[in-house]
Design goal:
Length: 324
């Protein structure tokens, strides 16, 4: 591995690997107001949420790498103690990018970026109408992380009011990520668009699983299962016994099938019919039946039917052992 000591390689090199490695990062589009009443708007991807009671968001308006000066957002927060943090979606990309230009502090960046200002309810800085979610915030703490070019200034902000557009609601009391279509920042000039095929679900383990070290060798040594498959196998709380597996199989209806029908079920993710087909193929001494069982276990894992996956995997292993 490439190993770097930040103190030896310097800020520019460190910056590249920090941004490449910590990615994608959410983007806060931050609206502040200066003491003289000038609106400021800038994006920050050193940003996240840190608590919900009280609700806390934090971002870092770092010292400029070029001349070690502080950014307008930092100065405005120090003097007026308020901001509005906005979620950035794909349709806001280029205007958000425009707002990252280093305009002088007497320039209204709403005018420059073309975003529409609307009044906030609890703080003085205005909001960005085009953004689907707005967090009105009060500064809790500004933590200065060094006085050097590139040093961060962590603005820890308490959220005092939240506005969510109905357009992004999922109808179940939450936000629909596909409707939100948020973007994140990666390293270099790369961004991530968090919608469509980039989105997937992974439910949290319900209880404490058996753990990776408890996986039997026939699972760990498979040439078919992926690391994610092994993680899912390890999430199960109890491994079914051989007797349970036998009982389960004796109740199944085995359908006549061909390799072609197996693959049709595979494409459909229909792991129950995949298993019925694989059992038939096994009864016909099909030499690929172990492979079909493992594909079936994988498909059951993808459907989060861990019990089914274990039964298929155990059956596959025990019949292989008998044949040996
Ligand atoms: C997507 C994106 C993310 C950015 N993230 C940060 C960041 O986390 N911290 C930072 O200091 N600057 C960041 N910048 C650069 C600032 O937006 C830029 O320096 C801006 O001009 C600061 O404006 P201000 O002086 O009006 O506060 C980012 C720029 C873009 C386009």
């Amino acid at each position: 591995m490439l190993t770097l000591d930040p103190e030896l390689v310097g800020n520019q090199e460190t910056f590249k690997y920090l941004l490449g490695g910590v990615s994608p990062r959410p983007i806060a589009l931050v609206s502040t107001i200066s003491e003289l009443g000038v609106n400021n708007l800038s994006p920050f991807s050193f940003f996240n949420a840190f608590g919900s009671n009280p609700p806390v968001l934090a971002f870092s308006a770092s010292r400029r790498g070029t001349n070690n000066t502080s950014k307008d957002t930092y100065e405005n927060l120090i003097s007026t103690k308020e901001c509005v943090i906005h979620t950035v979606n794909y349709s806001m990309l280029e205007q958000m990018n425009l707002a990252s230009s280093e305009f002088d502090s007497d320039i209204d960046e709403f005018v420059k970026s073309g975003f529409t200002p609307i009044a906030s309810e609890r703080v003085r800085p205005v909001r960005v109408k085009e953004s689907p979610i707005h967090f009105e915030c009060e500064l809790m703490q500004m933590i200065e992380l060094g006085g050097l070019p590139g040093s961060g200034n962590l603005a820890v902000c308490k959220v005092v009011n939240i506005h969510v557009s109905e357009d992004v609601l999922d109808g179940r009391g939450g936000v629909d990520p596909n409707k939100l279509d948020a973007i994140g920042r990666n390293g270099g000039a790369f961004y991530t668009r968090a919608s469509g095929l980039a989105l997937f679900e992974a439910q949290k383990p319900r209880g404490n699983g058996i753990g990776y070290e408890a996986l039997p060798e026939f699972i760990k040594k498979s040439n078919v299962y992926t690391a994610n498959n092994l993680g899912l196998f390890a999430m199960t709380e109890i491994i079914p016994s051989n007797q349970e597996v036998e009982n389960f199989i004796s109740r199944l209806k085995i359908k006549e099938a061909s390799e072609e029908t197996f693959y049709i079920y595979h494409r459909l993710g229909d792991y129950k019919n995949m298993f019925a087909s694989a059992l038939f193929l096994q009864s016909q001494s099909n030499e690929k039946s172990y492979y079909f069982f493992e594909l079936t276990a994988m498909a059951s894992l993808m459907a989060r039917d861990l019990g089914f996956a274990w039964k298929v995997a155990i059956h596959s292993n025990s019949t292989r052992a008998i044949q040996k």
